[in-house]
Amino acid sequence: MKLSIVIVNYNVKYFLKQCLASVFGSQRRLADGSELEIDVWVVDNDSVDGSVEMVGKDFPQVQVIANKENIGFARANNQALERIAERGQQPDSLILLLNPDTLVEPDTLVRCADFMQAHPDCGGLCVKMLDGEGNYLPESKRGFPTPEASFYKISGLIRLFPHSQRFAAYYMGHLDDNAVNEIEIMPGAFLMFRHEVYSAIGGLDESYFMYGEDIDFSWRIRMAGYKNYYLPETHIIHYKGESTKKGSMNYVYTFYNAMSIFVKKYYSGRDARLFNGLLQVAIWLRATLAWLGRIGKRLALPAMDFALAYGGFLLLKQTWATLWGGDAAYYPSEYTTLIIPLYILFLMAFSWLNGGYDRPTRLSRIARGMGIGLLILLAFYSLLNDNQRYSRMLLLTGSLWTMTSTILIRLALSAAGSKEHSLRKRGRTLIVGSAEESERVRTLYHSLGMPDDLLVSDSSLQPHRLQEIIRIEHIEEVVFCGADIELPSIIDLMSHLKTTGVEYRIAPAQGDFIIGTGGILSPDALYLDNLDTISTDTCRRRKRLFDIGTSVLLLVASPLLFWFQKRKSAYFPHCLQVLTGRLTWVGYTGRRGVFSPHDLLSETTADTQRRLLLRYMCHYKTTTDSAILLRNWNNI
């Protein structure tokens, strides 16, 4: 039996590498004694992270289709499906659509192939999916998205009644997650079907750019007279959402627009109008709620800081007015309604500029920022006329209270167990594997500049022993060595260690990277806290403030500078685009700019440009942007 596997990739090189390694490490012996022949296709949608080069070097047996643009999920899959069909297939051959951010168990492919051989009525098959922490993903099996089922999902009722046949129909929650069942819709992350099904119904509908095409394809399989099955006897890990931001406005629109396409295709008349109206409401409602949620999350902590600081300031004012002025109403109303809020906002602004609201929380940043702000306020206060001065003592004590109350809030949040505001020292990392593999992982951690707080455990230990080690040694992260522990065992250990609250990573048998839900750890990935990388909030804020300040200066100085420009038509557009955030003065990977880091030199080779870009991103300084801008001042 032949199995053709199609993987569509977009900028997830390390996930793809681990996925391919799990596929080629799979068992091949079927229940009838024959061999499962695997044919793998990777369709790359114009990745810029070196995915295509990696596949060519590490997996030369893979057929690669390298697109020059992102043509979407459905169209990319169809490219490979058409090539597979052109080669001719055996009557019993199978096709699998697989996400790159997945890991298959050693027996997953043969178990699925055996099931489809044993069930001639099975046109499509999916398996039980777990996330990177070992938790069950409800989208492993889904029902047809009727207007009623979609409403219960959109409204959130599905979360209140996760096992109801009515309210949880979208995820078929009434069916046992651990039992084989006929289902309606299969997920595109792992969707196996017969080649004869493809011949009968064709490929994925390219009207869908992303999302919805798996619903459409699954439904067409059923309409052609076949059944779709859910097989929980084998698992895959799906690092869900690695290439999409599911809280973004774009995700909300893309997902529900796909549903709208589906409705127009399969519904008609009044039902179609009703369902589409519901979807449009859902698009704007979810987008608005997502936007308000992000704003609320960002403003919640500053609002707490301001409220507590303001309350303390008022108490100090009342106390000082009574003791010193002999009258609780000694200070004018504008001092309470205007001056005190301005003091607090000024101090909070300097705390923000110094990283007081960045993650992880650092109390020293808050103290430094507000300390600088207080000195500036005192200096400004000394320049005021006597009739404009209210009280230097109140300014000093109120500012110190603002700093103290802000720090107290962080301490309270940390004590309450908030991971975002945790102030405790990071726990240790436990490496589970053989001595040889553990040493390899330890060396990789050291090369990445990670803290040398690593503990090694033998992979033969039982789950209860690992639980004891995690508790006694204050373990925060567990790294499983993929060369020593097979995926089923890793999943089993994850399920036993859930109550410990640790995070999990997997170190593949080959490769200089470690993968997990928290991201990738590798020599060329910018995930290191000890590097002042451009990905940090502090550096991005400094860069944005630099862009705004220089854009304003260039616009003010334009009557003089404009006449010396080599490309006069671009001067004002560039200044305005940088000012509004559409461009940055010095661009880098993922961010368009007027200039590049290599513009600091007259002539550079491609290799030098790459190294300059990497250094710029790893060690960002506004002085570098200044130097590049000054060097090219007449070429803006």
Structural overview:
This protein is of the alpha/beta class and 636 residues long. It folds into four domains: 2-141 and 177-243, Spore Coat Polysaccharide Biosynthesis Protein SpsA, Chain A; 297-415, no CATH class; 428-521, Rossmann fold (3-Layer(aba) Sandwich), CATH 3.40.50.20; 537-635, no CATH class. The protein contains 21 helices and 17 strands. The protein has helices at residues 13-24, 51-58, 73-86, 108-118, 147-155, 157-160, 195-201, 213-223, 249-266, 269-325, 333-353, 363-382, 392-415, 435-447, 463-472, 487-496, 537-556, 558-561, 568-579, 606-618, 622-631; strands at 2-9, 37-45, 63-67, 94-98, 102-104, 122-130, 181-183, 190-194, 227-238, 428-432, 454-457, 475-481, 503-507, 514-516, 519-521, 584-586, 593-595. Strand 12, helix 16 (487-496) and strand 13 (503-507) form a beta-alpha-beta unit. The radius of gyration is 29 Å and the shape is globular. The model is unreliable at 242-247 and 526-532 (pLDDT under 50).
